[in-house]
Structure formats: C-alpha cells, structure tokens
From TrEMBL:
<keyword id="KW-0472">Membrane</keyword>
<feature type="transmembrane region" description="Helical">
    <location>
        <begin position="310"/>
        <end position="330"/>
    </location>
</feature>
<feature type="transmembrane region" description="Helical">
    <location>
        <begin position="113"/>
        <end position="131"/>
    </location>
</feature>
<keyword id="KW-1133">Transmembrane helix</keyword>
<dbReference type="GO" id="GO:0007165">
    <property type="term" value="P:signal transduction"/>
</dbReference>
<keyword id="KW-1003">Cell membrane</keyword>
<dbReference type="InterPro" id="IPR013604">
    <property type="entry name" value="7TM_chemorcpt"/>
</dbReference>
<dbReference type="GO" id="GO:0005886">
    <property type="term" value="C:plasma membrane"/>
</dbReference>
<keyword id="KW-0812">Transmembrane</keyword>
<dbReference type="GO" id="GO:0050909">
    <property type="term" value="P:sensory perception of taste"/>
</dbReference>
<feature type="transmembrane region" description="Helical">
    <location>
        <begin position="342"/>
        <end position="359"/>
    </location>
</feature>
<comment type="similarity">
    <text>Belongs to the insect chemoreceptor superfamily. Gustatory receptor (GR) family.</text>
</comment>
<dbReference type="GO" id="GO:0030424">
    <property type="term" value="C:axon"/>
</dbReference>
<comment type="function">
    <text>Gustatory receptor which mediates acceptance or avoidance behavior, depending on its substrates.</text>
</comment>
<keyword id="KW-0675">Receptor</keyword>
<protein>
    <recommendedName>
        <fullName>Gustatory receptor</fullName>
    </recommendedName>
</protein>
<keyword id="KW-0807">Transducer</keyword>
Length: 455
C-alpha cells in the first residue's frame, strides 16, 4: 500500500496528445474561440468592430407558411413527385403547415402509402402472370433462336425489379423526406443570408417534359417489342409500361436534382463574388460557408436517400448490357447481322445512355459545388483583405476539403464518371470470357463436322 501511495503521490509528466476532431467538432471549437475573443474585447474595449469577431446566430424555427412561399424547388418539381405518388414508387407526402412539423413527411399509414400498396398489388398480379407465361415459353420451346432467347432473358430479368420496389424505394422513404426538407429549409436560409432567392429557370417545363417523355418512351419501347418479337403478346406490355417508365423517371429525377444543385451553387458563387468585393466581408463569408456546407450535405443526402433505388438501377443496366451485347455478338458470329441484332444494340445504347446521364450529371454537380468554389477562393488576393477575412477564406477552404460534395450510394459506390469506366471495363472482361467460350464451342462444332465429312 505504501508503494502505491508513493507512486500516486508522484507527479508524472505525461506527453500532451492532441485530440483528433471531426470537422463538426473543429467548427464548434472554432466558434467557441471566436465567441470568447468577442467577450474579451467587449470587456477591454468600449469601441470595437464586432464584425471582425462574428459568431453565427442561433437557429430559429422558421414559419411554415414562409417556408412554403419560398420553396421554389418543390413547386417547380412537384409534377414528378406527384407522378411518383401515382405510380406508387415513392409515396412521400406534404405535411400541413404547422410549427415544428417538417414540410415533407413519410408514414406507413398515410394515404399515399396505402395507394402505393394498392397499385403494387395490381401491378404485381400482372407481372406474375406475364412472368409465368414467359418462363414457360422459355423452358418448353427448345427451338427458339438464340437472339430470341436473349430477349426473353432480358425481359424476364426486368420483371424482377418489380419485386424489389418495396425494399429499394419504400424503405428509404424517411431519408427521401429528410432530403426534401433540407431543400425546403435551405432555400429560406439562402434568402435570409444573401437577400435574393434561388431561381430555377426552365425547371418547371423541364420537369413536366421529362414526366411526359418518360412514359412516352416506355410506351414506344414496349410497342416496338410487340411488333418486332413474334412471341411478345400485347397484354405483356401492361406489365412493362410502369417498370420501364420507372427507370426513365429515376434518370429524370437524378438529372433534375443535379441541375438544381448546379443552379444553387451558381447563385451562391455570384453572391460570394459580390461579398468579396465589399469591405471587410468576414461576417458574410462565415454565413456563406455554412450555406456551402449545407449544400454539400444535401448532395451527400441525395445518394443516401436513393441508394437502394439507384443501386438496383445500376445492376439492371449492368446485367442487361452484358446479356444484350453478348447475345448480339453471338448471333452475328453464328448467322450474321439481322434487324433483331440491331434491336439488341438499341437496348445496349439505351441502358448505357441512362448510366451516362446519371454519372455525367453527378460529375458536373460535384464540380460546380466543389472545384469551382475552391478555384474562386484560391484566386482571392489575401494580401488585400483584413486578417478576419483571411481566416474566413482559410476556414472556407478547410470546410470544402473536409466536406467533399460527393454523391455516394450509402457506401456502395460513388456516382461519377469513374463509375462509367469501371462498368465498361467489367463488362468488357465478362464479354471476353463469354466470347472465348463461344469461339471454343464454334471450333469444336467445326472439327466435329470436319470429322463427320471425312470418309
């Protein structure tokens, strides 16, 4: 006991270890230090410029009527939201304007969810009948050409996306509601900080046009299959209309969101340029930094909210592209090129176009929000501004590096141009392996024919 008492009484000098802080903890510590600086100056000086020691104001609860009035993004894209509700794809709803109640909500007992379940039951019934018919024809008809069999495999696999809808879409309804509420709150906050609202030019007619185009393209694709494929009956099309329209609407939704991020980033950049030309813009820079971080978090929430849907989307595109490409090349090797192979190449072009639009728009949105802001801040002449502005520019650059505007599907994959190249490389690898088997099979058949013809 005496030994332990002696050890405890000694003052052991331990090395100081700097704690590892998250970006939000660093921001909180920075604000606390600024607030303490402000209090010390108030205690020591009567006349002091408080703008050099700006501390963010406490958050206040916004008026729901005011949120609705300035929610331009919701009003301009409402047509696509209503279309998703009618199709039963994403049954979120708009809450009544009450204080402390989010404007967009999701509830398993809401009328939107009940309608989605009703539509899903009817659609699933039709899908099951069509799936049963197509599987029976595929199994029993052994004399079907290979390209026709490929068509059957593609359209049978497409039917299975219907059964993934509740897991891929409905389960993430609360996350989608969070994303919509982030947009609603952000627009009012942007107006309070900059004094100007975010204007989305041409987004209203663009959304309506994409809604109509999504269903029109689905109808045209299904009717073309009805006329081109001898075993594709007309009543099959009623199972595929909503499924292909859903894929088109997903692409339209992603395009609209990426377009809106680019518009918001451009508006924030223009306000930032005006502020940097003013005298002592440190206070506004801090507010703009918070606006930018909110915008980056919204981009991250977009991938989190729709992760399962777009993950299913990428898998369907990946599988369909491989099967269609292999089927067309295999038939060209066996029988030469025909119009059916052209149809398979059209399916490949359609799938890759959808993937390209999603990845390309995500790339441009991330570039506008991230790289463009970094370039603009790095071009600021720090020697021509005061010390407080220098600190804010440095903090802005740190915020951009610590909160990169990346669209990530909840850890599964980053949506950018790299996803296109990786998918193409994977598909090329699988196609090379499959074609090797096909060429080996062709050589075996030719050798057997040669042996049979040799007397």
């Amino acid at each position: 006991m005496a030994f332990w008492a002696t050890v405890a009484s000694r003052e052991v000098a331990s090395p100081r270890v700097m704690p590892a802080l998250t970006p939000s903890q660093k921001q909180f510590l920075h604000d606390e230090l600024r607030y303490r600086e402000k209090l010390n100056f108030l205690a020591d000086n009567d006349d002091v410029n408080l703008s050099d020691y700006y501390v963010p104001k406490e958050e206040t609860v916004d008026d729901p009527e005011l949120l609705d009035k300035h929610d331009s993004f919701y009003h301009t894209t409402k047509s696509l939201l209503v279309l998703f509700q009618i199709m039963g794809v994403m049954p979120i709803h708009r809450n009544p304007p009450k204080p402390n109640l989010p404007r967009t909500g999701y509830s398993w007992t809401s009328k939107q969810v009940l309608w989605a379940m009703f539509v899903y039951v009817i659609q699933t019934t039709v899908v099951i009948f069509v799936l049963q018919e197509r599987v029976n024809k595929f199994v029993t008809n052994s004399e079907t050409r290979f390209d026709e069999a490929i068509y059957n495999v593609i359209f049978i696999s497409l039917l299975f996306t219907n059964f993934l809808l509740p897991v891929a879409s409905w389960r993430h309804g609360p996350q989608v509601a969070i994303f919509k509420n982030m947009w609603t709150n952000y627009q009012l906050k942007f107006l309070k900080v900059t004094g100007t609202p975010i204007v989305f030019p041409n987004l209203y007619p663009l959304t309506w046009g994409l809604c109509i185009f999504s269903w029109t393209l689905s109808i045209l694709i299904n009717l073309s299959q009805y006329f081109l494929q001898p075993d594709f009956e007309f009543w099959y099309t009623f199972a595929y209309y909503p499924l292909i329209a859903m894929l088109n609407c997903f692409c339209s939704l992603w395009y609209i969101n990426c377009n809106a991020f680019g518009t918001a980033s451009r508006a924030l950049s223009e306000s930032l340029q005006k502020t940097l030309r003013s005298e002592k813009p440190a206070q506004k820079l801090t507010e703009y930094r918070y606006l930018w971080v909110d915008l980056s978090h919204m981009m991250q929430q977009l991938g989190r909210a729709y992760s399962n849907m777009y993950g299913m989307y990428c898998l369907v595109v990946f599988f369909t592209t491989i099967i269609a490409t292999y089927g067309s090349l295999s038939e060209i090797i066996d029988h030469g090129a025909t119009y059916k192979e052209v149809g398979l190449f059209v399916i490949v072009f359609y799938c890759m176009s959808l993937l390209y639009i999603i990845c390309n728009e995500a790339h441009y949105a991330s570039q506008r929000v991230g790289l463009d802001f970094q370039t603009q801040l790095l071009n600021v002449n720090l020697t021509a501004v005061d010390s407080a502005t220098q600190k804010e520019v440095e903090m802005f650059l740190v915020a951009i590096s610590k909160n990169p505007p990346i669209m990530n599907l909840d850890g599964y994959a980053n949506i950018n141009r790299e996803l296109i190249t990786s998918n193409v490389s994977f598909m090329a690898t699988y196609l090379v392996v499959l074609l090797q088997f096909k060429i080996t099979e062709q050589r075996g058949l030719r050798s057997q024919q040669a042996i049979a013809m040799d007397p």
